[in-house]
Amino acid sequence: MLKTIRRARDRTLGLIAGAAAWLLGGASALAETDPMEIDPRLEGYARGVSLPEKGNTSLTYILLIFLMLITVAVLFKNAKRTHLD
Questions:
Q1: pLDDT digits (tens, 9 = 90+) for 23-39
Q2: How many Å apart are CA 68 and CA 71, to the nearest integer?
Q3: Beta carbons of 39 and 51 less than 8 angstroms apart
Q4: Helix segments in 1-85, DSSP class H
Q5: Where are the domains of the chain?
Q6: What is the reported pTM?
């Protein structure tokens, strides 16, 4: 009888804790949204400054291709080579 009461109590507490975690999960997601985006790099200047618009991403892609070529080149190394090369 006592085991049944404890099991029911544990189940109820588990359901309450799970429901609280589920309900409060949305509240923390809503709290993270910042309605006004302020760029900290622009704070503290006496006159108004601005950053240039979004730049070109071509250098990022060139770096990515270069790193991919290095990675693929390592794949074609001979696995049976000795360390005397």
A1: 877 766 666 555 666 77
A2: 5
A3: yes
A4: 2-31, 58-75
A5: 1-30
A6: 0.34
